[in-house]
Design brief:
The protein is of the alpha/beta class. Among the domains are: about 200 residues, 3-Layer(aba) Sandwich (Dimethylsulfoxide Reductase, domain 2), CATH 3.40.228.10; about 140 residues, Barwin-like endoglucanases (Beta Barrel), CATH 2.40.40.20. The strands form nine sheets. Strands 5-4-19-18-17-6-7 form a seven-stranded mixed sheet, covered by helices on one side. Strands 26-30-27-29-28-31 form a six-stranded mixed β-barrel. Strands 11-10-9-13 form a four-stranded parallel sheet. Helix 8 packs antiparallel against helix 11, helix 8 packs parallel to helix 14 and helix 11 crosses helix 12. The longest helix is centred in the first third of the chain and has 19 residues. About 0% of the residues have low confidence.
Length: about 725
């Protein structure tokens, strides 16, 4: 499409997050000038979000780095070429590996590491180096999901589709805003509206009346951190009232009676006392949920952050199994996959697998590798703890540890302690300030875009991934800005390996459901640098729809297979779903004894997590268009609480936990329970400017005060013995002027 100028409008893929919406980009004189929705896109129906629409700031804004940065001996950053940076980084890594062994080098992959093929190359680099120290943001997100799935076992047939489900339960997640999990993710509002029109019975468990809760038939508003008690109460009602799917449970599970015994004390009255959910509401919600014929449930970050996240996820998996909300033989498989090679879905359980205790063991708090990878909450400790096994170099791909890891002060000390910090990020970030090298990448659409990573998430958790067989590819559309010297993220790892004379082997398809094609090892040609497209080909080899076909559509497309069905159980299948995991039920017994409701005069409030609409974690906080309406993240409080402690809306308060203090501007919210402060993370504003003038000022990307992770401490609020996650929600705090 062309207008009177030389501006063209072309189909494209937004890669500003992993959802990869099919969109139009407007391009003029070799530069992207706009991103708009594509109403004809079969999956996104014209949907875009504010972050996607602001792609021009990402590409051409003042904060984008156009050349690598190197920290000079003076401590100032100077720009350098990729070649010089790579040669120096290689030299420094060699010295560290020679002196301290390969395990002294760690990798941290954040939210933006998943875009293919960067994380694949990063993993291959770590393997070639011989270091097992690869950490990811997954373990400070919803790690309980992965451990619970291992302990409970998986249903190979997958979940029942949201599009036709009679009921759905959301625990500590707000998918209408976050777009992750449960409500189909491309254009969640569209999918939710359709579901509401046909009468879906939505149940939300959230101490805040969230955007999703406002749409729900029933909203339970418990004390934060009591999800395990609430879910144990629901399981008890289901068993007591015989609301479970007896045939399904008989055929596919073990240890129902053990579960029954352990939930016995979680009567509706007990849950009411403990979690402050009226017994009648708990009964009603459970009856609505469990008497539905089809349904599903998701827990999110709120449920995982508030202590006992693994137990909460485990009880939720048990509840869904009891209700039989699992795809059955002959059901349509609404998403038989597109680009991620996989086997057919079968209506059968896959037996539990170990969830923790894998090598390597860490030196911190007895932690080890787990079903969700190494615990990132221990990474700062592993950098700071002197002696054998100390981590001395960190490569950070697409993450921002200073604004995401628990315990900001400890994280800062760790970043300062490192002998070498390499940060791959398009801009200078709070973490990048501590880096020796900041390596900015080329961005989509300067490079080809592929939707692979979000599709792959389907195998990780129910309700994740695309609800439809959607895939998107678009070749590069513009050149990087004039004068820039940029690599692709993956190229850094490739060139670094070549410089260090390491051979890279890609390990493709590492985390899959059994029954899918086996993982493959593919040796890379270390003489002739591959193209991104060649790497995409390796990644998608054997996919249901060949990548060549997806490429032909030049953007998003749905590849339906009306005949895709969930197959019958394999006659040799020995699988079962475990309802009575000993470790989980021992944690439940413990939860019976100690709740999180206990009053605490010193820290009478609880800080709970939330997400902001226009920004994604720390990304976008420095983009004026995204934060124009509100350049800070307020501390939402109930007006009655504010009155009690004499705080007016707009006041700047100090929020103090046992670990640290952050400051924030208070905002009234009737949507909260009393006694809470609801606030999002990864934010930085200049509070001095805020305090001295009515103009809150432009957001200051380098201010570090306001990451709520500063309030979290593994030393003080450590209740997750396997994931290592301290509380990032339900943190005891006091609020003062
Ligand atoms: N207190 C508290 N802590 C939390 C959370 C919370 O809710 N509260 N949430 C947790 C969760 S769920 C997560 S996932 C983690 C997130 O933790 P991180 O992933 O560590 O943090 P992000 O802010 O998402 O960092 C993403 C970085 O990627 C950069 N980036 C963007 N595009 C590209 C690209 O193409 N290439 C590269 N190399 N970089 C790119 C962005 O500029 C940004 O700096 O934080 C966790 N920490
Ligand atoms: N716009 C936007 N979208 C995002 C992100 C973003 O930063 N901005 N981040 C992305 C990332 S990395 C992730 S992991 C996902 C996360 O997606 P979600 O898990 O949906 O995260 P939130 O939207 O913060 O919703 C968490 C909810 O949990 C509630 N909550 C807090 N504590 C408790 C508790 O103890 N119990 C219960 N039951 N509820 C509690 C909060 O009130 C909040 O409504 O979102 C992704 N999408
Ligand atoms: S949801 Fe993600 S992919 Fe879609 S428009 Fe927003 S940033 Fe782009
Ligand atoms: Mo996340």
């Amino acid at each position: 499409m062309t207008d009177s100028t030389n501006k063209i409008r072309t189909r494209a893929v937004c890669r500003n997050c992993m959802i990869s919406c099919g969109v139009f980009m407007e391009i003029e004189d070799g530069r992207v000038v706009g991103l708009i929705g594509d109403k004809d896109d079969p999956a996104s129906h014209g949907y875009t979000c504010a972050r996607g629409r602001d792609v021009t700031t990402q590409l051409y804004g003042p904060n984008r780095l156009l050349r690598p940065l190197r920290k000079a001996p003076s401590g100032d950053f100077e720009s350098t070429s990729p070649e010089t940076a790579i040669s120096e980084i290689a030299d420094r890594l060699r010295v560290l590996v020679d002196e301290h062994g390969p395990a002294s080098v760690a990798l941290y992959t954040g939210t933006y590491a998943l875009a293919p093929p960067a994380s694949l190359l990063a993993g291959a680099f770590m393997n070639a180096l011989g270091s097992p120290m690869s950490f990811s943001c997954g373990s400070i997100d919803q790690p309980g999901k992965f451990l619970a799935r291992a302990l409970h076992g998986q249903w190979q047939g997958g979940g029942q589709p949201f599009a036709t489900a009679e009921t759905w339960l959301f625990v500590g997640t707000n998918p209408l805003v976050s777009g992750l999990g449960g409500i189909p993710t491309l254009n969640p509002a569209w999918h939710l509206n359709r579901a509401l029109k046909r009468g879906i019975k939505l149940i939300v468990i959230d101490p805040r009346r969230s955007e999703t809760a406002k749409k729900a038939l029933l909203h339970l508003q418990p004390v934060p951190g009591e999800d395990a008690a609430v879910l144990a109460g629901m399981v008890r009602i289901v068993l007591e009232e015989g609301l479970f799917d007896k045939n399904f449970v008989d055929e596919n599970t073990r240890n129902l009676e053990v579960l029954r015994q352990h939930v016995e004390s979680f009567t509706p009255e007990f849950v009411e006392r403990r979690a402050d959910v009226p017994a009648t509401d708990l009964l009603e919600a459970t009856r609505v949920f469990a008497s539905s014929v089809t349904g599903g449930a998701n827990a999110g970050t709120g449920a995982n952050f508030s202590s006992r996240g693994t137990l909460t996820e485990y009880l939720l998996a048990c509840l869904v199994t009891l209700c039989g909300f699992r795809a059955r033989e002959g059901d349509l498989d609404p998403n038989p996959g597109v680009l991620v090679p996989r086997g057919p879905r079968r209506a059968q359980p896959l037996a539990p697998t170990p969830a923790w205790g894998f090598p390597p063991k860490l030196r911190t708090r007895g932690l080890s590798n787990t079903a969700c990878g190494l615990p990132t909450s221990a990474l700062a400790d592993e950098i700071l703890l002197e002696g054998e096994g100390q981590i001395r170099a960190l490569i950070c791909l697409g993450g921002n540890p200073l604004m995401s890891w628990p315990d900001q002060a400890k994280t800062r000390a760790a970043l300062e302690r490192l002998d070498l910090l390499v940060v791959l990020d398009p801009k200078q970030t709070q973490t990048g300030q501590f880096a020796d090298y900041v390596m900015p990448p080329k961005l989509v659409p300067e490079i080809p875009a592929l939707s692979y990573d979000f599709e792959e998430l389907e195998s990780h958790a129910p309700g994740w991934g695309y609800a439809l067989p959607y895939a998107a590819y678009r070749e590069a559309l513009v050149d990087p800005p004039d004068g820039s010297e940029l690599l692709e993220d993956w190229e850094l790892f490739y060139l670094l390996a070549r410089e260090m004379e390491l051979d890279l082997q890609l390990y493709v398809g590492a985390i899959r459901t059994p029954g899918d094609p086996p993982a493959r090892r593919v040796a890379l040609d270390m003489q002739n640098t591959p193209t991104t497209d060649e790497l995409f080909d390796v990644l998608t080899e054997g996919s249901r729809i060949p990548l060549s076909e997806v490429r032909r559509h030049h953007a998003g497309q749905v590849y339906e297979d009306p005949n895709a069905q969930v197959l019958a159980r394999d006659p040799d299948s020995q699988g079962f779903l475990e309802l009575g995991d000993e470790v989980m039920l021992a944690q439940l017994d413990e939860a019976l004894e100690s709740g999180s409701l206990e009053g605490d005069d010193e820290f009478p409030f609880r800080l709970i997590c939330r997400r902001q609409e226009n920004t994604l974690n720390s990304l976008g906080r420095d983009q004026p268009k995204l934060v124009r309406a509100r350049p800070h993240h307020p501390a939402h409080m109930h007006p009655a609480d504010m009155q009690d402690i004499g705080i007016a809306p707009g006041a700047i308060v100090a929020i103090t936990s046992r670990r640290d203090t952050v400051h924030a501007v208070v905002m009234e919210s009737e949507d909260l329970r009393r006694g809470l402060v609801s606030m999002s993370h990864s934010y930085g504003i200049d509070l001095e400017r805020l305090a001295t003038g009515s103009d809150p000022g432009e957001p200051q990307p380098f201010s570090m005060g306001n990451h709520t992770g500063a309030l979290a401490s593994a030393d003080l609020d450590y209740e997750e013995p396997y994931t290592g996650l301290p509380r990032l929600s339900s943190i005891p705090v006091r609020v003062t002027l």
